[in-house]
Amino acid sequence: MSLHPSVAAVRLAVRRTLADLVAEQPGRRLAPDAALLVACSGGPDSLALLSATVFEGHKLGFRVIGVTVDHGLQEESAAHAARVVEKMAALGADETAGARVEVRGGGGRGPEAAAREARYAVLDQMVQHFGAVGVLLGHTLDDQAETVLLGLGRGSGPRSIAGMRRVDGRYRRPFLGVRRATTVAACEALGLTPWDDPHNADPAYQRVRLRREVLPLLDDVLHGGVADALARTAALVRDDVDALDELAELHKDEVLDAEQLEALPAAIRTRVLRAWAHAAGTAPLTSEHTKALDGLITDWHGQGPIDLPGGFAAVRASGRLTLRPHPKE
Fold it and tell me: Collapsing DSSP states into helix, strand and coil, what is residue 5?
């Protein structure tokens, strides 16, 4: 019997990711019993990912570890996490792990951002615990399209429009070129019953409204193909952003020369300033912070220190920029 096309598609995506991961290992060889984490929520994307990773990973010698994170945001979330652990074991994971995290909002973050931050923190801990060579995540092309739209709507610059990376340090996203419908079809073909997260139908979440209202409307107005177009846009922007970031790296220093910086294109100069501030320990700069900091270079008229988040102030003196702790009142 021939393999269902959706199953073939998800396995191929995982196979390519694992081949790249093996090629990055010392001597292009996998260490015996090398651990690979697969984040699994129990939804169709992550179930299809775990199933494909078990199938492809075992052929290469990976020890596949299924990991689920309970954010504690819903009633009976602990019971759901326990069911996911059972499903991961039934799918053939060599080992399973679950963790409960506390999601704290505040600081301008919404619940989605806070949950994401908590989730990645615990995944980082599990990487260290298992000595894993990587973590696979189930984000799809549809997730990428939603991310690009969110970045556009917030006006937060090209880095957010560039979307998620296929390879982001220890994290790998094999399905960024795979549609969500394909993962759903793969689960159906494999006889898997995914969890239907009630948050995916809650219009209080921006992504839900993008998924259910905005993207269908754009498809209707633009005659289809919007998600694919947004994903292509992300890839193109990411290439440009990465190139600019590499150029900016050539100009970083602990003390910045204002005259040299002024000669740089704005796209590179502002990257140098953000990287310089971040390296010194500031919190991430907003566009307003960056504009004010850039004003010390391009609109210098003797203005005083520029307050930056994290308790720092930027000062221009004798043609140079320096950072110093902000004096306490």
Answer: helix
Cβ(35)–Cβ(74) below 8 Å: no
Identify the CATH number of the domain defined by range 252-325: 3.30.465.60
The DSSP bridge pattern shows strands 306-308 and 35-39 to be unpaired
d(CA 180, CA 51): 15
Residue type for position 118? A
CA distance 208 to 44: 16
Would strands 95-100 and 171-172 be described as parallel, antiparallel, or unpaired?
Answer: unpaired
3-state secondary structure of 206: helix
Beta pairing, strands 306-308 & 312-317: antiparallel
| Superfamily for domain range 5-138+173-201 | HUPs (3.40.50.620)
* 193 Cβ contact list (under 8 Å, min separation 6): 187
Gyration radius of the chain over CA positions: 23
* Residue type present at position 139: H
Q: What confidence tens digit (pLDDT) does each residue in 189-198 have?
A: 999 999 887 7
Helices 215-222, 141-154: inter-axial angle, 10-degree rounding: 90
Single-letter amino acid code for the residue at 45? D
Query: Residue 229: is its pLDDT beyond 90?
Result: yes
All structural domains of the chain with their residue ranges: 5-138+173-201, 252-325
Mean pLDDT of 212-232: 95
- Give the residue carrying structure tokens 């300033």: 273
Question: Predicted confidence band at 306 (pLDDT cuts at 50, 70, 90)?
Answer: very high
Q: Which token pair is 218? A: 């754009």
| DSSP characters over 161-200 | HT---SEETTEE-GGGGS-HHHHHHHHHHHT------GGG
Beta-carbon count within 10 A of 278 CB: 13
